[in-house]
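Section 4.2 – Deliverable D4.2 (structural model, holo form)

The reporting period included a commitment to supply a predicted holo structure for the target in complex with guanosine-5'-monophosphate. Inputs used:
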Amino acid sequence: MKAKAAEKTSKRAPSPRRSPSVDEVPTVSRLSPRVPAAHKGIVSGVVVTPAQIRRRVHELARAIQSDFGDREWVVVALLNGSVLFVADLVRELHGPLILDFIGVSSYGDGTESGNLVYTKDLKLEVAGRDVLVVDDILDTGRTLSEVIRRLRSLGAQRIRTCVLLDKPSRRVVKQGADYIGFQIPDWFVVGYGLDYAERYRHLPFIGVLRPEVIAAAARERVR
Ligand code: 5GP
Ligand code: MG
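Output (structure tokens):
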């Protein structure tokens, strides 16, 4: 009986039905002061720990795997911020899938989103295929909605979206995501792929950038 149900699920095209654990998006409203000593000068608190990331990536992957069928799909990750996230996510997916990257840059050197520029185009064909777009964070919504528009214009058949973080209070464009890791307040965060002026992407956790770091970088630019 169970095997039959699983078979049915695996034959299905991506559907909006997801497991409850993935629909109940954890909301982070408080920072943990337990910042690893090496990074105390960079972040003021921890938003999500490596263990919390691992657990949530596992939940997201389970939901994605059961929503996508056994017809090969394309995972399109947005460079550069989603690289660590997508690397962990795809290793929890059975597929069948193929992986490609689009380069989009919206932030320049600051913490406010600016104009969108494509820095790398897709290599794989998406026409007629099911696509999972993966990004690090949904902020104003401009990046994701632009990328969806582009994938549609390239003929993608079904497009689902997955982001590790969501800052709903920052939305400018009406844009959601199908799979969300964590909801967070309007904090500027770094780590686990997320940068400030290309730095701090390698941190294994996500933390809030200290304002002093931004101020110091601004002074550096003036000089
Ligand atoms: P949106 O187009 O939704 O405003 O922004 C999406 C992009 O802005 C993300 O892919 C990410 O690169 C960047 N971004 C938004 N919020 C943050 C943040 O808190 N920290 C960092 N490092 N990047 C962010
Ligand atoms: Mg990004």
